[in-house]
Amino acid sequence: MATLSTHVLDTASGRPAAGVAVSLEKDGAVIARGVTDADGRIAQLAGALEPGRYRLVFELDLGQFFRRVALDVEIGSESKYHIPLLVTPYAVTSYRGS
Questions:
Q1: Distance CA 31, CA 57 (A)
Q2: Could you give the dihedral angle defined by the CA atoms of residues 31, 37, 42 and 45, in that order, rounded to the nearest 10 degrees?
Q3: In this structure, are residues 25 and 63 in contact, taking their beta carbons and an 8 Å threshold?
Q4: What residues are paired with 21 via a beta bridge?
Q5: What is the pTM of this model?
Q6: Strands (E), 11-96
């Protein structure tokens, strides 16, 4: 079983993005929800995740071009997954963190 954490950084301002609503979906159903803290983090959005495909959805109400970002991810047999999102007014990027 795996855990999933995330954080959102506004790289244009050089600050964490606090107050971003994040949800995790499996087969179209929301299985976890959270909101980023003052440091832009959700330390554990979900725990006890079985291997499979999930959708991580960020609702970006930051006054920028991108309003919603959905990432389809594959959870495997590792115990910990961390997926950051970096946001600027006209670009987003993500990666598998540690």
A1: 12
A2: -20
A3: no
A4: 35, 59
A5: 0.94
A6: 15-16, 21-26, 29-35, 41-49, 52-59, 68-75, 80-88, 91-94
Q: Give which of 26, 27, 28, 37 is closest to 2, Cα–Cα.
A: 26
The amino acid occupying position 35 is V
Contact 11, 87 (CB under 8 A): yes
**Tens digit of pLDDT at every position of the chain (98 positions):** 999 999 999 998 999 999 999 999 999 999 999 999 999 999 999 999 999 999 999 999 877 799 999 999 999 999 999 999 999 989 999 999 98
Q: Which two tokens stand for residue 65?
A: 């071009």
The helix (H) or strand (E) run that includes residue 7 is: strand 2-10
Question: Residue 89, CB half-sphere, CA atoms under 13 Å: how many?
Answer: 3
Q: What are phi and psi of 4, to 5 degrees?
A: -130, 130
Q: Residue 21 corresponds to which amino acid?
A: A
